[in-house]
Amino acid sequence: MIIKKQNLKKIITIGLISFTIATIPPIKVFAIWNQDNNGWWYSEGSEYSIGWKQIDGEWYYFNNNGSMAKNTCINGYTLDSNGIWINNTPNNLVDSEKDKKIAEDYVESLGYIITKNLGEVGSFILDENKVSSAEWENKWEVQKVKPNEYLGKQINIYNFKVKNHPLEKQYNSEVYVYIMISEGKVIGGYSIPDKGYTGGVYSIDGKL
Question: Fewest C-beta in 10 Å: which of 26, 75, 115, 180?
């Protein structure tokens, strides 16, 4: 079979291109830590991590905006100041169930009738930023304890919808009661009417 020079050149060119593509090493996706105004985040190529991520043998949790969570508790898993999961989760989960029962008993001891138990709705390690935040400033104002007593400690919050609360008649509505627990003890809480109210929180017994 006779191959023309022009066709032979095409065959050689195609062969060289195929060989070159086959021998190019795959591009590596580099994973790096970054920091911005929202804190630390972890990127892999053009994507940033969200949710749980194991990095160099340690577990971290990244919020929906990519920022690393720290000094908090995610679904019973405690993260330290470096964002690393503290590997004592089984005990944490047991303690969480105990705290839930303590909160429930406390609400009932006040004479309130629980119509809905919403369980744990928040958990964090208290720091200066949390104390001075706009969200928590009003909540601490209605507590009998001072927040500085609990700096560096974990606080779990349990929510109940109740009847027979002092605010029920005032707002013609059931009331949400939030119980704050630290180290297995009730340290405070607050109340919010279910309907007809848009202001700050009330104390557990319905006072501002």
Answer: 26
User: Across the strands, what pairs with 175?
Assistant: 162, 193
HSE (side-chain half, CA atoms, 13 Å) at 176: 14
**What are the residues facing 116 on neighbouring strands?**
161
Query: What tokens does 189 get?
Result: 């809480």
Neighbouring-strand partners of residue 181: 156, 186
Q: What is the largest CA-CA distance in the chain?
A: 102
Q: Which residues of the chain have pLDDT under 50?
A: 1-3, 5, 8, 11-12, 14-25, 27-28
- Report CA-CA distances (Å) from 141 to 43, 120, 138, 180: 40, 22, 5, 14
Query: Over the stretch 59-109, which tens digit does the pLDDT of each residue have?
Result: 888 988 889 999 888 766 788 889 998 865 555 555 677 889 999 999 999
CA distances (Å), 22 to each of 8, 17, 53, in order?
21, 9, 33
Note the pTM of the prediction, 2 decimals. Answer: 0.60
Alpha-carbon span 28 to 178, nearest angstrom = 49
